[in-house]
Design a protein that fits this description.
This protein is mostly helical and 69 residues long. The longest helix has 12 residues, at 19-30. The radius of gyration is 13 Å and the shape is flat. The protein has 3 helices and no strands. It has helices at 7-14, 19-30, 42-53.
Length: 69
């Protein structure tokens, strides 16, 4: 545990996912839900969001990440 986060949570936080979202994702994973991540250009992320949105996810979030300018 790092600052109250699991190793996965700490990794997500280190790439720019906000801590409140990390906590939400950890809770979902503990409840046997899935976490799907996509990484790419703005256009690729928008396309991934559109595709993933077709399956009615419980949530669909976009985070800019630590390395975006």
């Amino acid at each position: 545990m790092v600052g109250g986060l699991s190793a996965l949570g700490a990794a997500l936080y280190s790439i720019g996912v906000p801590k409140d979202s990390v906590l939400q994702y950890e809770t979902a994973l503990k409840a046997d839900r899935f976490l799907v991540m996509a990484h790419g250009t703005a256009e690729e992320v928008a396309r991934a969001k559109t595709i993933l949105g077709t399956v009615s996810p419980l949530s669909l979030d976009v985070h800019a990440g630590a390395n975006s300018a």
